[in-house]
């Protein structure tokens, strides 16, 4: 089963809205065109937060791009989202916001790590209980998704704005041996490591990227990207990042 992950789309209500030099709408459209072409048999799209850039009219734009999808579009909020506005605009299939979703032998658990008034994230006790309960009730291979990174990733400034209550998070994850991966957005760069048997995966934005291993805020000149997964019935994960060249993006924007 194949899955696409797109993240940190940072849309505005206005089609020409730019963030850090990138027109987020045309950049996203270019990324998904590449994804749909390379992975036409995907089973779902996973969107790991910051759908909009502090602009609730961006959700209408998001709906105009994904609303006709025949496959589920599984969304979680990031620090630039407004969960109420998101639920209001994306209130029917193909969209699902948070909750969990099962396809074949795999279960996707979408967590809300939004912490009001903070750039970093936190998981409420209710959200941690839901995670534990969902994992207890289902023997399927689990892929846990949240916006904020639950591990240090090598950049001081990003480490300061990750998930705050990582100890509590990992206590739940460690109690369930069928969690195969934890997947996030927020960091605008790739990350791929293991914590024991659990794969840890960060994914670049569909727009501008951050420079890995930088002490302070720093923009990378790498192009927009998405992640694709192949999830096997035995729990094995094949995954990689697909970078989408800015040349192609410019061509697409000119159409
Ligand atoms: Fe974020």
Sum up the structure in keywords:
single chain; alpha/beta; about 25% strand; binds fe (ii) ion; six-stranded mixed sheet; about 260 residues; globular; Purple Acid Phosphatase, chain A, domain 2
Layout of strands and helices, then pairs:
Elements: E1 2-6, E2 18-19, E3 22-23, H1 24-38, E4 42-47, H2 58-66, E5 73-75, H3 83-89, E6 95-97, E7 99-103, E8 106-110, H4 125-137, E9 141-145, H5 156-159, H6 166-174, E10 179-184, E11 191-195, E12 198-202, E13 209-210, E14 219-220, E15 225-231, E16 237-243, H7 246-254
Parallel strand pairs: 1-4, 4-5, 5-6, 8-9, 9-10, 10-12
Antiparallel strand pairs: 1-15, 2-3, 7-8, 11-12, 13-14, 15-16
Bound molecules: fe (ii) ion.
Residues 49-50, 78-80, 147, 186 line the site of fe (ii) ion.
What can you tell me about this protein's structure?
By secondary structure, the chain is α/β, with parallel strands linked by helices. It has one domain: Purple Acid Phosphatase, chain A, domain 2 (4-Layer Sandwich). 26% of the residues lie in helices and 27% in strands. It is built from 7 helices and 16 strands. The strands form 4 sheets. A 6-stranded mixed beta sheet has the order 6-5-4-1-15-16, covered by helices on one side. Helix 1 crosses helix 7. The radius of gyration is 17 Å and the shape is globular. The C terminus is likely disordered. It binds fe (ii) ion. The site of fe (ii) ion has 7 residues, from loops.
* CATH class descriptor: Alpha Beta
**Percent strand:** 25-35%
Q: What's the rounded overall pLDDT mean?
A: 94
User: Stretches where pLDDT falls below 50 for ≥5 residues?
Assistant: 251-255
Structural class: alpha/beta
- Topology as H/E string? EEEHEHEHEEEHEHHEEEEEEEH
Strands, total number: 16
SS element count, helices: 7
Strand order of the largest sheet: 6-5-4-1-15-16
